[in-house]
Amino acid sequence: MRSHVIDPARPRFLLLDFLRIIGAVAVLFYHYTARQHGAWGVAPSDEFPILSGFAAYGFLGVHLFFLLSGFVIFFSTEGRTVGQFVAARVSRLYPAYWAAVILTSILLVYIAPQLGRNLSLTQILTNLTMVQSFFGVAHVDGVYWTLPVELLFYTMIALLISVKLTEAKVYGFAFGWPVVAAVAQQFDNEILKMLLSPVYASLFAGGMVLYLLHSRGHSMLRWMLLIFNALLATEQMVRNEMPARQLRLTGHVLSEPVGVLIMLGIFAAVTLIVLTPLKHRGWAWMSYAGALTFPLYLVHEYWGWWIISISHEAIGKWGALAAAIVFSFALAIVLERWVERPLRPRLRAGLLRSFEAIRPAAESSGK
What we know:
Blueprint: H1 14-33, H2 44-47, H3 51-55, H4 60-75, H5 82-111, H6 121-127, H7 146-162, H8 167-186, H9 190-196, H10 201-216, H11 220-241, H12 256-275, H13 284-365
């Protein structure tokens, strides 16, 4: 692809940051008021009979994350080498993640063993790698399941950069990845399904196509690829996720038309923001809200459940819900300010130095 230097003065997509925090709050409400857990003492659907029915669709916040990731990560490849891309991604993910694993492990082992998670030391240590699921090791916190999916996408992007990314290759990737993943799904090949993420491939691919539309302009092929991936992502969600998240996880029968409308609405909202003058709209606080999204996602589940379990009898369900939300945001603020900000640039700089040291050695060995 044509390489260009990203202008640091160019304004951020502030409304995308706002969408990101909205997605995180949707997931938070899903886990607190819809997904089955024991913190309330009764089923969340009994505690919040009306709110729970709406919050049951909050799992779609993760789909928004993946679509945004396809756009933003592809944006970040412009003008970068593989080493620069890897350094940026590792430094973005791991500091907050390491802190979240440690904090949640302390909570579950020492503070709130009543939450019912029996963790071993090797399980905790393996979770620090972020690839625990590939080794059959359970996540310390269930929300971590999305991170290996992200890592696989980053790996694919790094491979594309290494073979000299071109627009034609992106077209082939955005079409071929969801299709090949769906074939693996039909043949029930567990290894390929794990590597290709058929349920989420179209979300990442759709985000990549959106970046092409944003950076290269409109064309029939790009619009067809975007619509193709939006429809496939919707079909995968309806067929593979809605059934699992109905009575077993939430106690609600989810409406297929509602799920379809939300999914297509997610694609439409992101498309409007990145392809219209809305990309220049927003307020500065949205950038900070977006920065809180990842740490909030990492810590909200078990810490929120613990706050609910120890407070709902004393301050009522609405007070406990508010307390859990406030506490989770406060923890996210701490992680963003005192973990991510100081550690991210140091980790990135160290990795960049390491990759720079590798390149001369590789070049000399190739002579």
